Amino acid sequence: MTAALALGDDALVLSHRLGEWAGHAPVLEEEVALANIALDLLGQARTLLSSVGDEDELAFLREERSFRNVQLVEQPNGDFAHTIARQLYFSVYQHLLYGRLAAGEGQFAALAAKAVKEVAYHRDHAEQWVLRLGDGTAESHERMQRGLDALWRYTGELFEPVEGLDLDRQTLGDDWLAAVTSVVRRATLTLPTGPQSGGWAAGAGRQGLHTEPFGRMLAEMQHLHRSHPGASW
Amino acid sequence: MVTETPLEAEVRRLAGSVPDPELPVLTLEELGVLRDVQVQGPGRVTVHLTPTYTGCPAVETMSADIERVLHEHGVPEVSVVTVLAPAWSTDDISDEGRRKLAAFGVAPPRPNRGPDGPVPVTLSVRCPHCGSTDTELLSRFSSTACKALRRCVDCREPFDHFKEL
Questions:
Q1: A131, A138, B23, B150: least CB-packed within 10 angstroms?
Q2: Mutation test of the interface with chain B: which of A50, A117, A127, A129, choosing the one with the most B Cβ atoms within 10 A?
């Protein structure tokens, strides 16, 4: 239950954040790309949440404190580079995580084996953009670095233990750091050096503690369903 | 599959003949998403369907279409079950499906599993309009989750490529 909610909420919340780019992306191709990535994540979320309850109730009728997503995925989109930094940190993590889950025989093996192939494209998309922005103009380089720095404090939470997920979190973290470091260096950027979780509440999303922007995001995501209970298209 | 009865084979043929809602030139059988058909009893059939992508919104339409076709052919109770494992791959698209895709203007996916050998072969994506192999990637994502957007360097036409999964 805990693990399905944690992974399902990660996918649902990031899907919603990426969906917010619809109508606002810098170019049409990215509008389509971010919406497609959001759709893949929504498919994962539906499978995971349906495995532990009613997907609509879980998505639209839970309060903020009941969500178990990491704080990284709820962070606002910021500029395009900020979104790409979030995509890099998360898609590398998710690709490595699903690869491990797919190789096992646990309850998530079937979904992970399917989703890992989709997430490989998300990861590639993020890596290609980090390279282009980092090794691009002075402006794009600065913005990409700013995005990486600003979100770094939320990355430690990705490797916290989750009840029901039997994984070697140390090697997951090591592999993630090696992969992210490699992309960041090739992009002529600098790996952030600060702590990977903050002194205040950063890194407590799995316990139901979320950052301020998450409440506003949920209000927008849930208001239609709550205003018109039981409505359908 | 060795125990498939003539009735199950007929139900499978009917369900498999349903066109894909987003790529109507392909049938579900050619797309390779129809996994199994079981006749549970008189007038009672279960169909196993696998999605191409986890979030593919066409699955609900496919299920409804399968139910409708089987109802029309006298099967009153149809249950369509979605299965995830083993994960669908573009290698599951039949040769006839690939031919139809190209004729429709969508470059078919390249094989994931090439002929046995130590060196993976990377084939270029052929332009479905003029046949040139000189094409370039515009975006890894296109009109649906399963496609990438490419452009032909020779005829300059953009085209969809059913990307490998």
A1: A138
A2: A117
